[in-house]
Amino acid sequence: SYPQATERATASTSAMALSLYTREFDGSKAIIAAKIGGVKLTVFPISAYQGKADAAKAPVLVVLDGDGADVTGLDAVKYVAAMGDAGVYPRPSEGVVPADVAVVDKWLAFDAASLAPPVASVTAALAAKGAFDKLAYDAAMKDLEGALKTLNDHLAAATFLANDTLSLADLCVACTLYPAMAAALDAPARTRHPHVCRLFNTVAALPVVVGVMGKPVTIDKVKVPTTGGGGSSGGRTEGSKQSKGSRSTPAAAAATGTPTGSPAEIASAEAAAAEQGAAVKALKDGKKAGDATCTDDAVKAAVAVLLGLKKTLDALKGVGAKPVTPAA
């Protein structure tokens, strides 16, 4: 449904200041929407948020000099997009919700409920260093294939997901697919869904998207972990060969103390670090190739994020922690 927050975006925004509190990648869609629409947005880590909204639903958008509660999740992305002047998410006029919004909202809901969950599950499973649950991985891949088929069938007769122009739905779906393209969707999978790939490549080529997400990385074959577990009969390695501009993330050092994170938290952190590592490599390669969008500042910022992710991962795995010495 059209969020009440976006109705407030019809008011003059000249005196409004927007602050976005986010974890590593939760805020990417809102940041891209802001850049495309010319909306001034200040970004902070979610740890700095002190408001009343649920930080677990990051990103959290705080509207200074505005009215109403802080906005979270997809509503925060919609709010930022509606304030922009690019038209990627139509804003209401005199309280009337544009008919186009229903189409955009349909695909935003699909992205959040049907595409993002299997992408997260599959990429986390592939990045995990512990026991590999092949049954869970296969189930998530089945869901992902189903979501991609739905998108591909629709895009077979349409250039964009909603209407005839680029919308917030296209931007969000492409951002969701970034880690899947880098780890889970090999050449045969991309061949099965050519219209999805066309949309992804169109959006990923936009300079503003490259500036936030980095250049996209694709793989020729998926490398399935060889460690069995979770009811599997033993994993198998299909072989992995990443395409130009990609590199696998070096394995983290062995833990020297007691892990502080759960297996799920560690797997999620590993997936985030692997994704950011690919983004850093893509930016460096682009800079060497003379791409004007791959600036020194962009590379430094991406490296800083990667170092932060690795530090978080080490803490979760107990790396650097003092081991507990058994009593004699």
Please tell me about this protein's structure:
Helix content is 50%, strand content 5%. It has helices at 4-7, 28-37, 73-83, 100-127, 134-155, 168-183, 187-192, 194-204, 207-213, 263-288, 296-317; strands spanning 17-22, 41-45, 60-64, 71-72. A 4-stranded mixed β-sheet has the order 2-1-3-4, with helices on one face. A hairpin with a 6-residue loop joins β3 (60-64) and β4. α2 (28-37) runs antiparallel to α9. 41% of the residues are buried. Residues 4-15, 229-241 and 243-255 have low confidence and may be disordered.
Structure at a glance:
This protein is mainly alpha-helical.
Uncertain segments are 4-15, 229-241, 243-255
State the end-to-end distance.
64 Å
Helix % is 40-55%
Integer-rounded radius of gyration: 21 Å
Q: What's the helix-strand series?
A: HEHEEEHHHHHHHHH
| Mean of residue pLDDT values | 79
Could you say which structural class the secondary elements and strand pairing correspond to? mainly alpha
